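User: Sequence in, structure out. Go.
Assistant: Echoing your sequence, followed by the C-alpha coordinates.
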Amino acid sequence: MRTGVKYGAIDCGSNSLRCLAVEYGEGILEYVDSGVWITRLTEGIGSGKYSIRPEAIKRTAVAAAEAKALLERAGVDPERVVFFATESLRSAVNGDLAGSELERAAGISLEVIGGKEEAALSMKGALLGTRGVDRVFDLGGGSLEIGWNGSSISIPAGALRMKALFGEDQEAIKNEVLNLLSGSLPSSHSVLAGVGGTSSSVVMILEGVPVPDYHPARIHGYRVTASVMDDLAEKLGKIPVNDRTGITGLDPKRADIIVAGIFVIRTLLDAFGASGYIHSETDLLWAMCAEMAASEGLPVVGAKTG
Protein backbone atom coordinates (compact mmCIF):
# COMPACT_ATOMS: atom_id res chain seq x y z
CA MET A 1 0.00 0.00 0.00
CA ARG A 2 1.36 3.41 -1.00
CA THR A 3 2.16 5.90 1.74
CA GLY A 4 3.32 9.50 1.70
CA VAL A 5 0.74 10.56 -0.90
CA LYS A 6 -0.59 14.04 -0.20
CA TYR A 7 -4.09 15.32 -0.91
CA GLY A 8 -5.56 18.80 -0.79
CA ALA A 9 -9.01 20.36 -0.67
CA ILE A 10 -10.28 23.93 -1.03
CA ASP A 11 -13.70 24.82 0.36
CA CYS A 12 -15.35 27.98 -0.94
CA GLY A 13 -17.85 28.74 1.82
CA SER A 14 -20.28 31.55 2.47
CA ASN A 15 -18.15 33.33 5.06
CA SER A 16 -14.68 31.92 4.43
CA LEU A 17 -12.50 30.07 1.98
CA ARG A 18 -10.50 27.25 3.57
CA CYS A 19 -7.92 24.76 2.42
CA LEU A 20 -6.39 21.61 3.87
CA ALA A 21 -3.36 19.48 3.03
CA VAL A 22 -3.09 15.93 4.41
CA GLU A 23 -0.76 12.98 3.94
CA TYR A 24 -1.91 9.39 3.54
CA GLY A 25 -0.24 6.59 5.45
CA GLU A 26 -1.49 3.11 6.39
CA GLY A 27 -5.16 4.04 6.08
CA ILE A 28 -4.78 7.30 8.03
CA LEU A 29 -4.91 10.90 6.82
CA GLU A 30 -2.48 13.06 8.79
CA TYR A 31 -2.63 16.84 8.98
CA VAL A 32 0.06 18.73 7.05
CA ASP A 33 -1.13 22.33 6.73
CA SER A 34 -4.21 24.48 6.30
CA GLY A 35 -5.35 28.03 5.69
CA VAL A 36 -8.45 30.17 6.07
CA TRP A 37 -9.46 33.49 4.53
CA ILE A 38 -12.59 35.36 5.69
CA THR A 39 -13.87 36.57 2.33
CA ARG A 40 -17.62 37.02 2.91
CA LEU A 41 -18.50 35.76 -0.56
CA THR A 42 -22.18 35.89 0.45
CA GLU A 43 -22.03 39.44 1.80
CA GLY A 44 -25.58 40.78 1.74
CA ILE A 45 -27.20 37.34 1.98
CA GLY A 46 -30.70 37.11 3.47
CA SER A 47 -33.49 34.63 2.95
CA GLY A 48 -33.79 32.83 -0.37
CA LYS A 49 -31.62 33.57 -3.39
CA TYR A 50 -29.06 36.37 -3.49
CA SER A 51 -26.59 37.93 -5.92
CA ILE A 52 -22.86 37.73 -5.23
CA ARG A 53 -21.28 41.17 -5.34
CA PRO A 54 -18.33 41.82 -7.71
CA GLU A 55 -16.03 42.89 -4.87
CA ALA A 56 -16.81 39.69 -2.95
CA ILE A 57 -15.92 37.61 -6.01
CA LYS A 58 -12.62 39.48 -6.38
CA ARG A 59 -11.46 38.98 -2.80
CA THR A 60 -12.53 35.33 -2.83
CA ALA A 61 -10.66 34.79 -6.10
CA VAL A 62 -7.50 36.20 -4.50
CA ALA A 63 -7.97 33.81 -1.57
CA ALA A 64 -8.49 30.84 -3.93
CA ALA A 65 -5.17 31.57 -5.65
CA GLU A 66 -3.43 31.86 -2.28
CA ALA A 67 -4.97 28.59 -1.11
CA LYS A 68 -3.71 26.79 -4.19
CA ALA A 69 -0.23 28.23 -3.59
CA LEU A 70 -0.31 27.05 0.03
CA LEU A 71 -1.17 23.52 -1.05
CA GLU A 72 1.63 23.54 -3.61
CA ARG A 73 4.11 24.61 -0.92
CA ALA A 74 2.81 21.76 1.24
CA GLY A 75 3.78 19.34 -1.50
CA VAL A 76 0.33 18.50 -2.86
CA ASP A 77 0.21 17.61 -6.55
CA PRO A 78 -2.32 19.90 -8.31
CA GLU A 79 -3.93 16.74 -9.71
CA ARG A 80 -4.77 15.73 -6.14
CA VAL A 81 -6.55 18.94 -5.17
CA VAL A 82 -10.35 19.18 -5.13
CA PHE A 83 -12.02 22.60 -5.23
CA PHE A 84 -15.65 22.81 -4.18
CA ALA A 85 -18.37 25.22 -3.07
CA THR A 86 -21.41 24.77 -0.89
CA GLU A 87 -24.30 27.10 0.01
CA SER A 88 -22.18 30.03 -1.13
CA LEU A 89 -22.97 29.16 -4.75
CA ARG A 90 -26.06 26.99 -4.29
CA SER A 91 -28.21 30.00 -3.40
CA ALA A 92 -26.57 32.53 -5.72
CA VAL A 93 -28.42 33.69 -8.81
CA ASN A 94 -25.06 34.45 -10.42
CA GLY A 95 -23.30 31.37 -9.10
CA ASP A 96 -22.12 30.29 -12.56
CA LEU A 97 -20.38 33.64 -13.12
CA ALA A 98 -18.75 33.59 -9.69
CA GLY A 99 -17.72 29.97 -10.14
CA SER A 100 -16.01 30.73 -13.44
CA GLU A 101 -14.03 33.57 -11.88
CA LEU A 102 -12.95 31.38 -8.98
CA GLU A 103 -11.94 28.53 -11.30
CA ARG A 104 -9.84 30.95 -13.32
CA ALA A 105 -8.09 32.25 -10.20
CA ALA A 106 -7.32 28.82 -8.78
CA GLY A 107 -6.68 27.05 -12.07
CA ILE A 108 -8.81 24.15 -10.80
CA SER A 109 -12.31 23.00 -11.76
CA LEU A 110 -14.91 23.95 -9.17
CA GLU A 111 -17.64 21.57 -8.04
CA VAL A 112 -20.82 22.76 -6.30
CA ILE A 113 -22.05 20.06 -3.92
CA GLY A 114 -25.66 19.69 -2.80
CA GLY A 115 -26.86 20.24 0.75
CA LYS A 116 -27.56 16.61 1.62
CA GLU A 117 -24.25 15.53 0.12
CA GLU A 118 -22.49 18.21 2.18
CA ALA A 119 -24.18 16.94 5.34
CA ALA A 120 -23.20 13.33 4.62
CA LEU A 121 -19.59 14.30 3.87
CA SER A 122 -19.35 16.47 6.99
CA MET A 123 -20.47 13.48 9.03
CA LYS A 124 -17.96 11.25 7.27
CA GLY A 125 -15.17 13.72 8.01
CA ALA A 126 -16.10 14.02 11.68
CA LEU A 127 -16.26 10.24 12.08
CA LEU A 128 -12.72 9.90 10.71
CA GLY A 129 -11.35 11.66 13.77
CA THR A 130 -14.07 11.37 16.40
CA ARG A 131 -15.10 7.94 17.60
CA GLY A 132 -18.42 6.98 19.18
CA VAL A 133 -20.37 9.73 17.43
CA ASP A 134 -23.60 9.10 15.54
CA ARG A 135 -24.89 12.64 14.95
CA VAL A 136 -22.97 15.51 13.36
CA PHE A 137 -23.81 19.13 12.60
CA ASP A 138 -21.86 21.48 10.35
CA LEU A 139 -22.66 25.16 10.88
CA GLY A 140 -21.32 27.38 8.11
CA GLY A 141 -21.99 30.94 7.10
CA GLY A 142 -24.96 30.27 4.83
CA SER A 143 -26.36 26.92 5.89
CA LEU A 144 -26.58 24.29 8.61
CA GLU A 145 -26.07 20.62 7.73
CA ILE A 146 -27.00 17.73 10.01
CA GLY A 147 -26.37 14.02 9.61
CA TRP A 148 -27.57 11.09 11.73
CA ASN A 149 -28.25 7.37 11.32
CA GLY A 150 -27.95 7.44 7.54
CA SER A 151 -30.14 10.54 7.20
CA SER A 152 -29.07 14.09 6.39
CA ILE A 153 -30.64 17.53 5.96
CA SER A 154 -29.48 20.99 4.99
CA ILE A 155 -31.29 24.18 6.00
CA PRO A 156 -30.50 27.87 5.26
CA ALA A 157 -29.59 28.72 8.85
CA GLY A 158 -25.90 29.63 8.67
CA ALA A 159 -24.37 32.09 11.12
CA LEU A 160 -23.88 34.87 8.54
CA ARG A 161 -27.41 34.46 7.21
CA MET A 162 -29.00 34.43 10.69
CA LYS A 163 -27.05 37.52 11.70
CA ALA A 164 -28.19 39.34 8.54
CA LEU A 165 -31.83 38.44 9.14
CA PHE A 166 -32.17 38.67 12.93
CA GLY A 167 -29.09 40.36 14.36
CA GLU A 168 -28.36 38.85 17.78
CA ASP A 169 -32.00 38.23 18.71
CA GLN A 170 -31.80 34.76 20.26
CA GLU A 171 -35.55 34.14 20.27
CA ALA A 172 -35.92 35.12 16.61
CA ILE A 173 -33.00 32.91 15.58
CA LYS A 174 -34.35 30.02 17.65
CA ASN A 175 -37.80 30.30 16.06
CA GLU A 176 -36.35 30.43 12.56
CA VAL A 177 -34.12 27.40 13.07
CA LEU A 178 -36.91 25.35 14.63
CA ASN A 179 -39.27 26.34 11.84
CA LEU A 180 -36.73 25.23 9.22
CA LEU A 181 -36.11 21.96 11.07
CA SER A 182 -39.86 21.30 11.27
CA GLY A 183 -39.41 18.68 13.99
CA SER A 184 -37.32 16.46 11.73
CA LEU A 185 -34.63 15.63 14.30
CA PRO A 186 -34.83 12.59 16.57
CA SER A 187 -34.34 13.20 20.28
CA SER A 188 -31.96 10.68 21.80
CA HIS A 189 -29.06 10.24 24.19
CA SER A 190 -26.51 9.44 21.49
CA VAL A 191 -23.29 11.42 21.01
CA LEU A 192 -23.30 14.62 18.96
CA ALA A 193 -20.28 16.15 17.20
CA GLY A 194 -20.02 19.60 15.65
CA VAL A 195 -17.84 21.14 12.98
CA GLY A 196 -17.63 24.54 11.31
CA GLY A 197 -16.25 28.01 11.87
CA THR A 198 -18.49 28.98 14.78
CA SER A 199 -17.71 25.79 16.67
CA SER A 200 -13.96 26.17 16.06
CA SER A 201 -14.10 29.78 17.23
CA VAL A 202 -15.99 28.85 20.39
CA VAL A 203 -13.33 26.31 21.36
CA MET A 204 -10.48 28.64 20.41
CA ILE A 205 -11.96 31.28 22.75
CA LEU A 206 -12.59 28.81 25.57
CA GLU A 207 -9.08 27.38 25.30
CA GLY A 208 -7.46 30.79 24.84
CA VAL A 209 -5.71 29.81 21.60
CA PRO A 210 -4.57 32.89 19.63
CA VAL A 211 -5.76 32.80 16.01
CA PRO A 212 -2.19 32.85 14.60
CA ASP A 213 -1.35 29.81 16.77
CA TYR A 214 -4.14 27.66 15.38
CA HIS A 215 -3.46 23.96 14.98
CA PRO A 216 -6.30 21.40 14.75
CA ALA A 217 -4.78 19.22 17.47
CA ARG A 218 -5.17 22.07 19.99
CA ILE A 219 -8.97 22.15 19.78
CA HIS A 220 -10.05 18.82 18.25
CA GLY A 221 -12.13 16.63 20.55
CA TYR A 222 -13.05 19.41 23.01
CA ARG A 223 -16.42 18.88 24.70
CA VAL A 224 -18.62 21.98 24.66
CA THR A 225 -21.56 22.08 27.04
CA ALA A 226 -24.79 23.98 26.56
CA SER A 227 -24.29 25.91 29.78
CA VAL A 228 -20.82 27.05 28.75
CA MET A 229 -22.20 28.24 25.42
CA ASP A 230 -24.94 30.17 27.21
CA ASP A 231 -22.34 31.89 29.39
CA LEU A 232 -20.14 32.70 26.41
CA ALA A 233 -23.01 34.11 24.35
CA GLU A 234 -24.07 36.30 27.27
CA LYS A 235 -20.52 37.54 27.77
CA LEU A 236 -19.94 38.27 24.08
CA GLY A 237 -23.35 39.84 23.67
CA LYS A 238 -22.45 42.52 26.22
CA ILE A 239 -19.36 43.52 24.24
CA PRO A 240 -19.82 45.87 21.27
CA VAL A 241 -18.83 44.18 18.00
CA ASN A 242 -15.91 46.54 17.42
CA ASP A 243 -14.53 45.72 20.87
CA ARG A 244 -14.72 41.95 20.31
CA THR A 245 -11.79 42.10 17.92
CA GLY A 246 -9.35 41.86 20.82
CA ILE A 247 -10.77 38.61 22.20
CA THR A 248 -8.18 35.82 22.16
CA GLY A 249 -9.24 33.01 19.86
CA LEU A 250 -11.75 35.04 17.86
CA ASP A 251 -10.86 36.10 14.34
CA PRO A 252 -11.78 39.81 14.18
CA LYS A 253 -13.65 39.17 10.93
CA ARG A 254 -15.94 36.72 12.75
CA ALA A 255 -16.72 39.11 15.58
CA ASP A 256 -20.05 40.22 14.12
CA ILE A 257 -21.49 36.72 13.54
CA ILE A 258 -20.15 34.68 16.46
CA VAL A 259 -23.12 35.31 18.79
CA ALA A 260 -25.70 34.49 16.12
CA GLY A 261 -23.77 31.30 15.36
CA ILE A 262 -23.77 30.28 19.03
CA PHE A 263 -27.55 30.79 19.15
CA VAL A 264 -27.98 28.45 16.18
CA ILE A 265 -25.94 25.72 17.88
CA ARG A 266 -27.79 26.18 21.17
CA THR A 267 -31.13 25.79 19.39
CA LEU A 268 -29.85 22.63 17.74
CA LEU A 269 -28.69 21.17 21.05
CA ASP A 270 -32.14 21.68 22.53
CA ALA A 271 -33.79 20.20 19.43
CA PHE A 272 -31.61 17.10 19.79
CA GLY A 273 -32.11 16.96 23.55
CA ALA A 274 -28.34 17.16 23.99
CA SER A 275 -26.49 18.76 26.91
CA GLY A 276 -23.42 19.41 24.76
CA TYR A 277 -21.35 18.15 21.86
CA ILE A 278 -17.83 17.16 20.87
CA HIS A 279 -16.04 19.61 18.60
CA SER A 280 -14.30 17.99 15.63
CA GLU A 281 -11.67 19.56 13.40
CA THR A 282 -11.93 16.65 10.96
CA ASP A 283 -14.74 17.79 8.71
CA LEU A 284 -15.89 18.22 5.12
CA LEU A 285 -12.38 19.03 3.89
CA TRP A 286 -11.02 15.81 5.42
CA ALA A 287 -13.86 13.82 3.88
CA MET A 288 -13.14 15.22 0.42
CA CYS A 289 -9.49 14.21 0.77
CA ALA A 290 -10.57 10.75 1.93
CA GLU A 291 -12.81 10.44 -1.13
CA MET A 292 -9.87 11.24 -3.41
CA ALA A 293 -7.65 8.72 -1.67
CA ALA A 294 -10.32 6.02 -1.95
CA SER A 295 -10.70 6.75 -5.67
CA GLU A 296 -7.02 5.86 -6.03
CA GLY A 297 -7.42 2.60 -4.16
CA LEU A 298 -6.27 3.97 -0.79
CA PRO A 299 -9.03 3.39 1.77
CA VAL A 300 -9.12 5.77 4.71
CA VAL A 301 -10.20 4.53 8.13
CA GLY A 302 -9.11 7.40 10.35
CA ALA A 303 -7.57 10.84 10.69
CA LYS A 304 -4.77 12.31 12.78
CA THR A 305 -4.88 16.04 13.54
CA GLY A 306 -1.40 16.23 14.98
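User: And one key feature?
Assistant: Residues 5-115+284-304 form a domain with the Nucleotidyltransferase; domain 5 fold (CATH 3.30.420.40).
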